[in-house]
Design goal:
The protein is an alpha/beta fold and 283 residues long. It has two domains: 40 residues, no CATH class; 223 residues, 2-enoyl-CoA Hydratase, Chain A, domain 1, CATH 3.90.226.10. The strands form two sheets. The chain has a seven-stranded mixed beta sheet, sandwiched between helices. Strands 1-2 form a two-stranded antiparallel ribbon. Helix 5 runs parallel beside helix 7.
Length: 283
């Protein structure tokens, strides 16, 4: 073996030992820019090039929302994992197990309480990474628990939605969460406490048809997809081309479906101001 071959082999081994970690860079889904992951996350997972708001998990959302990133999780009793013994290409419990391993959470909706700009609040966040944030018994139970925790503590309930709709593996039991959550919202109204919804990308299906559109105030993140049926389904039904930006946050703002579109960096400040305006003053 010549010295050139030996040198080439040594260089190859050195390069292999210094392989780049898989998560060092993040590709923006909005403009395709390659972003240094650490800087991207420090910017609240918003692309500095195009402003695209990437989907974030519940824990990250809590950390960026509550004062000093301090919050207390609200525990929710876990419902049966497979009430209908549903099976498609693989058993439903296997899908649940995979989602729990990927996210580290028991279901798609997490609850926490803490202070937002010194105002106490209960916050619920749907994680799209958990089976598309789909609404099942667990999500419905968590939503009701969040509303009742807010009532018990005389606090507002803020809900961050992100879902593909109802969880088909739970059939009618999933659809029953629509009236269950609606009743919980009515309890909030009777207690004269604000219920604020923040619509994130994507919010669709039965979630949009229930608690996502029953807030006192509706906020949306920029360019979030919000709707009931998908655009292709609508186009094939009405046999017409939909307008540019249809079902996006800015389009819905222009047509009166949401009250405001707020960037992620301004979300905590906006929510704190709204809570201060909406919460009943102490006697």
């Amino acid at each position: 073996m010549s010295w050139i071959t030996r040198s080439r082999q040594s260089l190859t081994n050195f390069i292999q030992r210094r392989e780049t970690p898989d998560d060092l860079w993040t590709k923006c889904r909005g403009c395709g820019a390659m972003l240094y992951t650490r800087d991207f996350e420090a910017n609240l997972s918003v692309c500095p090039e195009c402003g695209h708001h990437e989907r974030v998990g519940a824990r990250a959302r809590f950390a960026m929302l509550f004062d000093d990133g301090a919050f207390e999780r609200i525990a929710v009793e876990s419902p049966p994992d497979d009430p209908l013994k549903f099976r498609d290409s693989k058993p439903y419990p296997a899908r649940i197990k995979t989602a729990r391993a990927a996210t580290g959470e028991q279901d798609a909706l997490l609850l926490a309480k803490g202070a937002i700009k010194a105002h106490p609040a209960v916050v619920g966040v749907q994680d799209f990474a958990f089976m598309g944030g789909s609404m099942g018994i667990g999500v419905g139970a968590a939503f009701v628990a969040g509303a009742r925790a807010a009532i018990a503590g005389r606090m507002p309930f803020i809900m961050f939605t992100a879902a593909g709709g109802a969880r088909m593996q739970e059939g009618i039991l999933s659809l029953m969460q629509m009236p269950a959550t609606t009743v919980a919202i009515q309890e909030m109204k009777e207690a004269r406490l604000p219920y604020i919804v923040v619509l994130t990308d994507p919010t669709t299906g039965g979630v949009t048809a229930s608690y996502a559109m029953l807030g006192d105030i509706h906020i949306a993140e920029p360019k979030a997809l919000i709707g009931f049926a998908g655009a292709r389904v609508i186009e094939s039904t009405i046999r017409e081309k939909l307008p540019e930006g249809f079902q996006r946050a800015e389009y819905l703002l222009d047509h009166g479906m949401v009250d405001m579109v707020v960037k992620r960096h301004d979300m905590a400040e906006t929510l704190g101001r709204l809570i201060g305006l909406l919460m009943p003053k102490a006697a």
